[in-house]
């Protein structure tokens, strides 16, 4: 039986080698890999370029790589070219191009069939890691590594120079073959900073790829859809000691990687939340050691929309955990008071950022199965974590939380945390804080990327989990540091405070775009729900667009091991059955299945935890009817608790109904979703 990986060599330009001797040399070289039989064909022609071909394990994806002026590659999917000849190169500061005037010296192949066991499984506990790999070594001391999976392709540059390097730029081109369309989260420049200063919170605008101007850039992931319905997502993984990749339009069916230049000078932008912005950048993007692996460039490929939300390719490509024992990292659910502006009611105290309010949140968390509360911005001076709000007694709150078995989580400003890191972490230890958020980073140039790693490592030494807000998408960082349990980089619930951007259509775009790069902190659970016509931005009375069940379903649909409930607990206390159901939803999963999906329109996600299943469904403003099949269940009966849109949810979006029914694997359950609607099912195995 032949392996699905093959290498086709059309001309070895620098030498005329005896074909049989060359084949024997290659076979001897490949013995060190655990492989099935290889099919190696050698062809020589005076007019052809050196061409290597790599197939995915199923053979559906084929990557061809060749050396012309520089290295180029293309990708075919199911025998159709989907990515035309695209350039790979790296330009050094001394003017050298790694690819130009550099011939292929050798290549080697590897087949991998392994399983990654995730300590914090946002999609699944056991992650199959199955791919074929081709390593191409060049005359200069560098190589390009390609991996072909059944759900995408990735490549990275690896160098082995003795001296350090200054990288002037990297060429990462993506040339498409049709007049494709794109979901493009364009970055909008601030008045006080350059275009690379961004919170990574933008709408995914859907438009023809050719309409993206060469002056427009977006952060990744970016999703391209072809005329034939093939989905191609572009992002990266293993981002370290290097700037993140943005993607620039070209006024054509192509995109180019763009990178923030290295920061030379910074300036403070003062205000309620001070931050550092770049005042002057160098004429290079990175300075780094000469022998290293650079980030993976990731190209996910899917025929059906439902293949995208369960894709964990970015996690697979990331470096393994650098925490020897991550058993102390605990996923769970938290409350947060910031979005509702601590606007409690039916309480015997003045609500606000004070001790009584946080004790109230602790009681709420305890009652409904939450693990922790978040003390968001306002508990201390943003510029000094030790200047605590005088209305707060931290010792009292910490003791009360400990007595109730509830953990504390704390918001920090990134600039302040950076200055007070060691002393702040020691203080958090004393209060029993094991999870912090740090906010307003808003950059991913090389210097800032080093900040993420340094903070995560320092937190790990104190067994503290960390969430970055105002941050670039996860991109595998959560595999390398499992304590970096989640991240923002999403236009989420907080935008309901001041804008109407967070629509159901936007909510239904995120599982196919932003979520491809890792878990995100959307902060669902708003309990004041509105139809499209009724939605308003009202201070202290934050609404969400869409139904109550649309918000509830997010706890299952969105990957996030540390889900944060942003609704008003005073309202939740009036609906204990609803809150008990919400509180029972896990945040890490043994398995994930996407039952049905259409980008920006609807999604139905089933997730398993132990013997139970949870199904979450969401749709855009179009009402829909579905028939839910449970053929993935085991034998026997199950109790299904269903929370679905109420009969009047199209007019009163907070209307819902909870019912319990007995089901088995043969049951077909019809369900109606109102405009901007949703549903949640909790399915429990019945023991006789």
Mean pLDDT, rounded to whole units? 93
Please state the CA-atom Rg, rounded to the nearest Å. Answer: 26 Å
- The number of helical elements comes to 12
| CATH top level label of the largest domain | Mainly Beta
From the spread of the alpha carbons, the general shape counts as globular
Terminal CA distance reads 47 Å
CATH architecture of the largest domain: Distorted Sandwich
What fraction strand?
Answer: 35-45%
Overall tally of domains:
3
Q: Level of helix content? A: 10-25%
Poorly predicted sequence stretches spanning 5 or more consecutive residues: 1-48
Descriptive key words:
688 residues, alpha+beta, Beta-galactosidase, Chain A, domain 5, TIM Barrel, Immunoglobulin-like, 9-stranded antiparallel beta sheet, 12 helices
Would you give an account of this structure?
This protein is an alpha+beta fold. It folds into 3 domains: 2-317, Beta-galactosidase, Chain A, domain 5; 318-484, Aldolase class I (TIM Barrel), CATH 3.20.20; 490-558 and 590-688, Immunoglobulin-like (Sandwich). The protein contains 12 helices and 42 strands. Strands 7, 8, 9, 10, 12, 13, 15, 16, 22 and 23 form a 10-stranded antiparallel β-sheet that branches. Strands 3, 4, 5, 6, 11, 14, 17, 18 and 21 form a 9-stranded antiparallel β-sheet that branches. Strands 31-30-29-28-25-24-34 form a 7-stranded parallel β-sheet. Helix 3 packs parallel to helix 4. The longest helix is centred in the middle third of the chain and has 16 residues, at 446-461. The relative contact order is 0.10.
């Amino acid at each position: 039986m032949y392996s699905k990986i093959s290498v086709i060599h059309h001309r070895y330009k620098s030498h005329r080698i005896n074909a049989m001797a060359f084949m024997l040399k290659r076979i001897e070289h490949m013995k060190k890999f655990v492989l099935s039989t290889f099919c190696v064909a050698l062809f020589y022609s005076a007019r052809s370029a050196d061409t290597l071909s790599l197939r995915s394990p199923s053979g559906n994806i084929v990557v061809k790589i060749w050396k012309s002026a520089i290295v180029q590659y293309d990708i075919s999917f199911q025998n159709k070219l989907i990515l035309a000849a695209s350039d790979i190169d790296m330009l050094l500061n001394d003017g050298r191009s790694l690819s130009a005037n550099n011939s292929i010296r050798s290549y080697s192949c590897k087949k991998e069939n392994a399983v990654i066991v995730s300590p914090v499984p946002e999609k699944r506990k056991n992650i199959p890691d199955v791919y074929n790999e081709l390593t191409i070594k060049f005359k200069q001391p560098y190589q390009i590594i390609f991996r072909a999976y059944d759900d995408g392709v990735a490549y990275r540059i690896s160098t082995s120079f003795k001296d350090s390097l200054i990288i002037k730029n990297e060429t990462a081109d993506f040339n498409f073959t049709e007049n494709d369309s794109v979901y493009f989260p364009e970055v909008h420049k601030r008045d006080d900073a350059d275009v690379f200063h961004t919170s990574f919170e933008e709408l995914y605008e859907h438009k023809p790829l050719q309409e993206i101007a060469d002056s427009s850039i977006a952060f990744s992931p970016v999703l391209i859809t072809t005329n034939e319905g093939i989905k191609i997502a572009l992002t990266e993984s293993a981002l370290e000691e290097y700037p993140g990749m943005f993607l620039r339009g070209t006024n054509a069916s192509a995109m180019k990687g763009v990178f923030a230049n290295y920061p030379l000078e910074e300036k403070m932008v003062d205000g309620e939340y001070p931050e550092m912005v770049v005042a002057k950048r160098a004429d290079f993007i990175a300075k780094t050691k000469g022998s290293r692996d650079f980030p993976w460039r990731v190209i996910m490929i899917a025929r059906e929309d439902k293949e995208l939300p369960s894709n964990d390719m970015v996690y697979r490509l990331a470096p393994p955990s650098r925490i020897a024992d991550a058993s102390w990292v605990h996923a769970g659910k938290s409350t947060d008071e910031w979005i509702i502006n601590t606007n409690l009611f039916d309480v015997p105290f003045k609500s606000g950022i004070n001790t009584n309010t946080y004790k109230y949140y602790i009681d709420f968390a305890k009652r409904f199965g939450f693990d922790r509360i978040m003390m968001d911005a306002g508990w201390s001076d943003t510029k000094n974590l030790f200047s605590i709000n005088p209305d707060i007694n931290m010792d009292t709150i910490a003791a009360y939380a400990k007595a109730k078995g509830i953990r504390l989580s704390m918001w920090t400003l990134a600039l302040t945390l950076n200055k007070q890191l060691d002393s702040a972490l020691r203080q958090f230890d004393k209060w029993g804080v094991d999870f912090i958020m740090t906010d307003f980073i808003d950059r991913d140039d090389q210097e800032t990327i080093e900040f993420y790693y340094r903070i995560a490592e320092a937190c790990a030494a104190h067994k503290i989990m960390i969430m970055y807000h105002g941050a670039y998408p996860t991109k595998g960082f959560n595999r390398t540091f499992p304590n970096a349990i989640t991240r923002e980089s999403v236009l989420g619930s907080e935008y309901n405070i001041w804008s109407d951007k967070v629509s159901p259509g936007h909510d239904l775009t995120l599982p196919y775009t932003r979520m491809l790069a890792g878990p995100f902190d959307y902060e669902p659970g708003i309990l004041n729900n509105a139809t499209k016509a009724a939605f308003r931005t009202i201070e202290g009375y934050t609404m969400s667009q869409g139904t109550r069940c649309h918000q509830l379903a997010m706890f299952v649909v969105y990957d996030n091991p540390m889900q944060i409930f942003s609704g008003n607990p005073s309202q939740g206390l009036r609906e204990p059955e609803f809150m008990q159901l919400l509180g029972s939803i896990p945040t890490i999963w043994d398995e994930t299945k996407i039952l049905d999906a259409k980008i920006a329109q609807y999604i139905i996600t089933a997730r398993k935890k132990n013997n139970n299943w949870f199904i979450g469904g969401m749709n855009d403003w179009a009402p829909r009817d579905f028939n839910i099949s449970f053929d993935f269940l085991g034998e026997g009966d199950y109790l299904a608790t269903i929370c679905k849109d109420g009969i009047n949810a199209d007019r009163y979006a907070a209307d819902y109904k909870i019912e319990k029914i007995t089901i088995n694997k043969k049951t077909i359950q019809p369900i109606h979703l109102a405009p901007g609607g949703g549903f949640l099912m909790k399915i429990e195995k019945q023991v006789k």
